[in-house]
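Protocol step 4 of 5: obtain the predicted structure for the target chain.
Materials: sequence only (see below). No template structures provided, no constraints applied. The aim of this step is simply to have a reference model before the mutagenesis design in step 5. Sequence pasted as it appears in the construct record:
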Amino acid sequence: MKRIVARVLPAVLLVILAPAGCVEPGAAPDANLAQEGLERLDFREVIRKAKDKVFPAVVFMKCLQESHETGKKITQEIAGSGVIVSPDGRMLTNWHMVDKAVEVRCLLSDGRSMNAKVLGQDKDTDLALLQLELPAGTKEVPYAKIGDSAALKEGDFVMAMGAPWGLNRSVSIGIVSCTRRYLPGSSEYSLWLQTDAAISPGNSGGPLVNTDGLVVGINTLGVMYGGDMGFAIPAETIKLIVPQLSEHAKADWSWTGLQLQPLKDFNKNIYFEGAEGVIVAETDPESPGRRAGLLPRDRILKIEGRPTNAEREEDLPAVRRMLGLLAKNKEVEVELRRGKETLVKKLTPRTKGKVEGDELDCPRWNLTVKTINQFDNPELHFYRKEGVFVYGIKHPGNASEARLYEQDIILKIDGKDVRTLKDVKAIHKASLEDIKTKHDVVITVLRNGLTWQIVLDYERDYEKE
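Step 4 output (structure tokens):
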């Protein structure tokens, strides 16, 4: 199955277009029309030159991804984009393009096709670094240079390049609508560049380019309805993350468990006293922040002497990024204001680790399972810090007939404790080997805080029907 991928924001925009620059019948020609024509030609030349610098480096990608969401392991093809950023074939794209990919195929601008391997990826910023598997003797490939997104202003012209709807390479033009867009749920460590240059499904991973022919962002999000609203990861974030992906194969963030809130929270209509610092909204259970004794409503002023000012929500990613880059397992001083007191607490960040659990397919049982991860499944992690849950259910199938549900936490199978995928894999394997004499198991699950005993009968083979 082929799928064209793009992260899409569910929104509908109503756009009213008004006529501009109309000339009334019989009006005298403008004396400056000739000059304006020359300026338009100059602008087209600027755009053409900028496009020519980057367009040869745009890559059309097809990835084969493994998915377990439907209750069984399936492989599906998705289409998207990338951009080569070094002469030896290093390439940037989105994390969601290569997540769980077993094969990445790339089509270059000159018609050459080759595979690529993933060097590093980061779900939190949706960035991935790849290496083209260049044929022997290849000296270099066309590549683009990374620019300075901090220099962008609202109204600056930009181009979005990529492979919309799987149609190989194309380019669209627009302006920067916002240079510091905060998107709740998608702005943990980075703000976004908002543009009205068309970003459609398939543009994911392609470059956003300024008029100097420099990559100022990686296209990531788009609005399916209404158009005129797309979002790109800024070059400022790219320059921070790529060296870590190259060195560690991941962003290697530190974790403190601090949930932050701006001083002036317009959306929640909450405004805190003080003009400096950031508010602790909550601390995660068993986190370094909670162990350090930080409390909700504490106003953090400095960390290791560095200010942590977040007046508005747009300022939060920079503070989270500061926390995420702290040295791991090394104590730092946190200066905070609690009521009328100024206190100093000792905080020891730890490695954030994986932000998503591993997955396993259980054929004949017609379900897939996944390990609980505190970042990906916080609601399940609340009940069980280490464990496995039902990730996908095949319909129709034995698991669905048994009334097992997605998000069920598996505690035991036939009386045997289950804490890891290895435990499930061993029990599942043994059950299929003994299927002629026994074809059911009793699965103990935790569902919404209550324990249930489920009998899973897997005598029927739905795969053959």
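Step 4 remarks: The domain at 55-132 is CATH 2.40.10.10 (Thrombin, subunit H). Residues 8-29 have pLDDT under 50 and may be disordered.
Proceed to step 5.
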